[in-house]
């Protein structure tokens, strides 16, 4: 099992960030264009427990995949999980959380626990390609969030994403 952890502090009310991430079609805005990400499912305006979403994604080197996720464990305004039901990973569990830091500031946390198929070959491919590829995808997401919710203090340097050491087990 592997884990990716990222957090970002955003100058926006938590309610605005929650409204953005609770709208499934907004995932397009946070996905790098080279993944040719396309939502196939008809989507509601906001997510709900048990919502399944079917995507098409083009993963460089690995080809085209259909990816089915289920939204679950929603704590309104605080957190939710998207869990892969079908797709390129043997296991994918993505926990999203919003933490209030002040009236107009919040922290968004992403914690992804995942495993690749193919046993030892999957472990090798993870070390060689997948770990860095996921890092690049979440770097893109970080940059897009900063564009959507730019820092209000122009003198503050942009914060790089917090990256915990990858845990491989």
Automatic annotation (TrEMBL):
CDD domains: SRPBCC_3
Protein's name in the database: Cyclase/dehydrase
SUPFAM superfamilies attached to this UniProt entry: Bet v1-like
């Amino acid at each position: 099992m592997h884990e990716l952890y990222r957090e970002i502090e955003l100058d926006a009310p938590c309610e605005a960030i929650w409204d953005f991430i609770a709208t499934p079609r907004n995932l397009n805005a946070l996905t790098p264009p080279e993944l040719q990400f396309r939502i196939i499912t008809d989507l509601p305006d906001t997510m709900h427990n048990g919502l399944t979403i079917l995507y098409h994604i083009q993963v460089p080197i690995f080809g085209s995949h259909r990816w089915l996720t289920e939204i679950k464990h929603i704590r309104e305004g605080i957190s939710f999980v998207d869990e892969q039901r079908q797709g390129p990973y043997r296991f994918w569990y993505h926990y999203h959380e919003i933490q209030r830091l002040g009236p107009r500031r919040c922290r968004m946390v992403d914690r992804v626990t995942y495993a690749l198929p193919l046993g030892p070959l999957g472990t090798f491919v993870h070390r060689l390609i997948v770990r860095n590829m996921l890092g690049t995808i979440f770097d893109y997401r970080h940059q897009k969030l900063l564009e959507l919710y730019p820092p209000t203090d122009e003198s503050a340097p942009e914060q790089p994403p917090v990256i915990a050491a990858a845990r491989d087990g």
